[in-house]
Write a structure and sequence with these properties.
Elements lengths: L1 E5 L6 H11 L3 E4 L15 E3 L12 E6 L2 E6 L11 H9 L4 E3 L7 E5 L2 E5 L13 E7 L3 E8 L4 E10 L2
Parallel strand pairs: 1-2, 2-3, 5-6, 6-8
Antiparallel strand pairs: 1-9, 4-5, 7-8, 9-10, 10-11
């Protein structure tokens, strides 16, 4: 299974659609601040949440589940993600998920915290504290999980990511 995770596109629907077309994922997760009309979002299986800059009426939190994955998705602005991963970890556990995806900080982050994998794909439009605009791809095989970060042109970023046994 292949899941495209992105966030903070801030109105750049053209780039968002281009990345989604190129990656061809089984599921797309957008962690908020898409800042465009919902009609301009890609027409693919997609979980989307509302960020602090969004006006469309989409949920602030969602749980997506398939193929042995249970992923909590939120923007992160209500969970202090710019200062600590702990509130995100606790909320992810609270909803019974082992993976939490969020945005808001525009900074790519992927770390296992107390048995919960937290993923911030960064921003595809306005990176902060990192030299490249980024997105992440989560790939799950029978017992392995891998998260790889990419620049918006599709070039892999080797200094970020995760690989481990998952089951």
């Amino acid at each position: 299974m292949r899941v495209l995770i992105l966030s903070d596109s801030h109105g750049n629907a053209k780039l968002l659609n281009e990345i989604v077309r190129r990656v061809k994922a089984d599921q797309v997760i957008h962690c908020g601040d898409f800042c465009t009309d919902q009609a301009d979002l890609p027409k693919v299986p997609m979980t989307v949440v509302r960020g602090n800059c969004d006006w469309e009426r989409v949920p602030q939190e969602q749980v997506w589940e398939r193929g042995g994955l249970r992923i909590f998705v939120t923007h992160g602005h209500k969970y202090q993600v710019k200062s600590t991963p702990l509130p995100m970890r606790y909320r992810t556990e609270e909803v019974g998920a082992r993976i939490g995806c969020f945005g808001h900080s525009h900074f790519p982050f992927c770390e296992e915290v107390g048995g919960v994998l937290l993923i911030n794909p960064g921003s595809i439009s306005y990176p902060r504290g990192f030299p490249h605009a980024t997105y992440a791809i989560l790939e799950k095989t029978r017992e392995k999980l891998k998260v790889t970060y990419y620049k918006t042109d599709g070039t892999a970023i080797t200094e970020r990511g995760y690989e481990g046994i998952w089951g």
